[in-house]
User: Fold these one by one.
Assistant:
Number 1:
Amino acid sequence: MELFRAPFAAIFLIATLFTASGASATAVIDRATGLGSPSVLIDFGNGLFPNGTGFTNQFAASGVTFGSNYEYRTSGNQLPSLKDGFLFPIAITAQPGSIFFSSNVSDALFSWRTNDSSPTTFQAYLDGNLVESIFSASTDGTVPLVSGKFYGFEDILFNEIRLAVSTHNGYILDNLQFNVVPEPTTLTLFGLTLLGLGAARRRKKHAA
């Protein structure tokens, strides 16, 4: 009986995941805390790379890459007391690149600050298509980045976040965290396997 119940749980989960792609996202704006137990958490370490290293695919193995215009920093005039690693514009006038996830995610948050109170625009995309989620928020950098100040999206299916700043005075990205969505194909195969095992067990019982 337990074997027979499991596929329905898998099928229910698959349906939930497909439904998520049409749901309305929760926009996270200037929140002090991140995700409770994320699949992946990247704090960019302390001195993992030399200051000024161009940053794109250094965390590809963790399921995320970055568009152009970022560099790795562990210190700077903007935040001289911040010693842990973070991402900074490769040039002060550069727009931030996208955050690309190698698998679909349901939630992604990150600490984000700018050097003035002008707004940043955040957009979530799925396979190059804009998800019905876009917001602009003031991201003033007067509050230390280490205190949190998370932005991002929750409760929707996406694999890219695009960012745009309205002025060119610099920005800082840190503490990226996200939840990976299990592949529906894997769950489907798992459910079919369990159904086959259940059917074989019933045939064996009737044969006896």
Number 2:
Amino acid sequence: MPGDVETDKVADYIKKSKIMVHPSTFEGFPRALIEGMSCGIPIVAFKKTINGIVENGIHGYLVDNDGEMYNRVDYLLHNEDLRKEMGQRCRDLVMNNYGKDVTKPILERLFKKI
């Protein structure tokens, strides 16, 4: 683990990853997933924790238990083409729904109202 990383270097570390494993069992809208997805990294996370961000089998895998998480991570680590396909779909999802081109006009309208 790299320890404390400067904010502008986080994406460099994420891009070196093959998979983002999110083992949290309680989370709202985890920014770390969006960061990983924006770098083209597929996700493996618990179904009960992640709602509405990751589509199972499309952007990675949503699992029910530790054993299933291990199996999905192992499967993705041994399937480079699938990792790349899922990673690209992750990046596309984030850029189309959370990227600056999408959020900037929304924030500008909000600030004008304030």
Number 3:
Amino acid sequence: MRQSMSINQLIDYINSDFYRKGRVNFRNKLLGFFRDESLRYLFYLRCVKFFQNRNKFFYFIFKYLHSSLGKKYGVKIPIETDIGYGLYLNYFNGIYINGGSKIGNNCNISHQVTIAKDNRKNGYPILGDNIYVAPGVKIVGG
């Protein structure tokens, strides 16, 4: 799992997620935050990870926002999941990713995707960089 991140790394993660959705300037990022649920969800996820060992007040606020938006759209990406820069969630619903999974940089994940651990000793899925996961795909085990 990645070490705790600095504020500059948090900003880089958030900017890379917004860049993947075509949001490059401040106005577009602000509009994207309020119009695109997947960007908002990723923003909350990155902030929960950042504040996890720093500030409990902000940690619980972002954790609540992260979980409530996830419940609304049927998306579960635990904060333990190791996610690289520039995650792109396409058609934001029905996504489940196990907490032990690793996702590389610049990955696209579509709707109705499950990335989970096998019940046996096969381990957790590891996705490399620049991966596209099509709608309905189930990736199970190492």
